[in-house]
Write a structure and sequence with these properties.
Elements (H helix, E strand, L loop, with lengths): L12 H18 L2 E8 L4 E8 L7 H16 L5 E4 L2
Parallel strand pairs: 2-3
Antiparallel strand pairs: 1-2
Helix pairs in contact: 1-2
Length: about 90
Amino acid sequence: MSDPAPDASNESLQARVERVLALIRPGVQEDGGDFELVKISESGVVQIRFLGACIGCPSSEMTLRDGIARNLRDRVPEVTEVIAVD
């Protein structure tokens, strides 16, 4: 059984973003890191805070850009940007 695509008519923006983040999180946790959703602005900017081994890790920018941001933009069209915050 495949994971259904997020449906804008049935789920809130936050719920859809959190669902995509839940798909990404296990891969990040395998390396001792984690992240949390801080905020989603009305303009679609998603703020993420890195935790654990991700803090200060040189690969965290790549994780943000190529993993988190790409997946969110692909699966949740309202997401316009993803940024890391402290």
